[in-house]
Design brief:
444 residues; alpha/beta; Rossmann fold; 2 domains; 4-stranded parallel beta sheet; 40% helix; globular
């Protein structure tokens, strides 16, 4: 005789769990397959998207032409913006993985011009871009003066000495310059200029960002390895300042002054170089030219983390950055250029957008009016950093979050939680007003 059926209250739960498990496995397989396909066809898909964008623009222009309509108002303000980029020095061939982008900054500015025109067409403002690339055998001052005849706003990617020379020219006193390359702390202090705004983070901002993160992790014993270039000395000075500010202990500083090709000698020389260092948590590298830093990793005597100019880096922009809508910016930039956005590109984008936002708000394009607004509390723009960015009125430095990036992953963002400031936590990075020797706005 057949046994009567009995109801088990756990049966539906078991069925649901099993069904969910198998559906999850199936979904994982599908997603994984799609992900592999997307990675394999990434360049092909990128090209297809570029072609679709071109086709959409063409059809939109045809529709407007057929209807005889346009969304553009009569132009009442024409704002040309210039960008001057100096040819980069070719670094030693220690790694050929990253291409040298000689005109970095141009594409970021061009993208921002399109963003400015999105609003400008509705209110009668027109923006254009004047691009100047200065080769090694050309005169940058002459090129700058020629550009100054066409625009009141010039973005510059030049070293510190040349930036000061350009800013001090008589023709520059009625202009506004935006620095997207020179990181020197002196430009934000004793060598500050009233007509210069700094988009690129200073070395002090980068060092403070690293110090906050490492302090929060309680990795407070640093072994600093420096190169022999002047830029390395400047970054070490910023690291020493950050260590004093946040109570970090630099247990030793050591200079890498070897001239042999480290690609061939790292296995033998790096262990000996690092063997005698006192007990430390992190090795901090100051090697802005990339002469040895990449080869300190995995060759040190003790198994230690690496940060600074290699390893964990403090940057204003990185291809890993996807939060706060940044993935949309990354996608737009790649579709236009077929490469990743760099720090100079991001800096140029911010500079052009700052000009456009200011002129939209004040409905004026005179440099004096634009400068006053940029330094005021009214100015702020969204810049894919989660909070709006502003300028420090006392030295013209852009307040912004600093990204702490490993080569292939975003690790953290500074300022870290818990580092408080009476004005904004962003002023915990770099030279705050009491510490700065520059005071461009004494009325603040």
């Amino acid at each position: 005789m057949r046994a009567p059926l009995r109801y088990n209250p756990l049966a539906p739960v078991a069925i649901m769990v099993c069904a969910g498990f198998f559906m999850g496995v199936a979904l994982f397989v599908v997603v994984s397959a799609e992900d592999v396909s997307a990675r394999a066809l990434s360049q092909e898909e990128l090209d297809e998207r570029i072609e679709r964008d071109k086709e959409r623009r063409r059809k939109r222009q045809e529709r407007q032409k057929e209807k005889g309509t346009t969304l553009q108002k009569k132009v009442t303000l024409t704002v040309p913006i210039g960008i001057l980029v100096l040819e980069k020095d070719i670094p030693p061939a220690l790694s050929n993985l990253d291409p040298i982008i000689q005109r970095e900054g141009f594409d970021g500015a061009r993208l921002a011009i399109e963003d400015n025109l999105t609003t400008g067409r509705f209110i009668g403002h027109d923006y254009s871009l004047e691009k100047v690339f200065v080769g090694k055998d050309e005169d940058p001052v002459a090129a700058f003066l020629e550009l100054a005849q066409k625009t009141n706003y010039i973005i510059v990617a030049v070293p510190k000495e040349l930036l000061l020379q350009l800013a001090d020219l008589p023709q520059s006193q009625s202009l506004i310059l935006f620095n997207i390359a020179a990181q020197d702390d002196s430009l934000r202090n004793e060598a500050c200029r009233d007509n210069v705004f700094h988009i690129i983070p200073s070395r002090a901002m980068r060092a403070d960002a690293l110090a906050q993160f490492l302090l929060r992790k309680r990795w407070t014993k640093w072994f600093v390895i420096r190169g022999v270039a002047p830029e390395d000395d400047a970054f070490v000075a910023a690291l020493q300042r950050a260590a004093n500010t946040f109570g970090i202990n630099i247990v030793e500083e050591k200079t890498w002054d070897k001239i042999a090709d480290i690609r061939r000698t790292a296995k033998a020389e790096v262990p000996l170089f690092t063997k005698t260092a006192p007990q430390h948590d992190v090795m901090i590298l100051a090697d802005e030219q990339g002469l040895f830093g990449e080869f300190i990793l995995w060759h040190s005597w003790q198994p230690r983390l690496v940060a600074g100019t290699q390893g964990l880096r403090a940057v204003s922009w990185h291809r890993n950055h996807e939060r706060w809508g940044a993935i949309q910016m990354q996608s737009r930039f790649r579709r236009q250029t077929r490469r990743w956005m760099g720090e100079w590109d991001y800096g140029a984008w911010v500079a052009v957008r700052a000009i456009g936002e200011t002129i939209t708000r004040i409905q004026k394009d005179k440099p004096k009016d634009v400068k006053d607004y940029l330094r005021s509390d009214a100015f702020a723009i969204a810049a894919y950093k989660g909070i709006k960015v502003t300028f420090r009125p006392w030295n013209g430095q852009l307040r912004q979050r600093i990204l702490l990036s490993a080569p292939r992953s975003m690790v953290s963002v500074a300022p870290q939680e818990g580092f408080l400031h009476p004005r904004t936590p962003l002023d915990t990075l770099g030279y705050d007003r009491p510490a700065s020797t520059c005071n461009l706005n004494p009325q603040e």
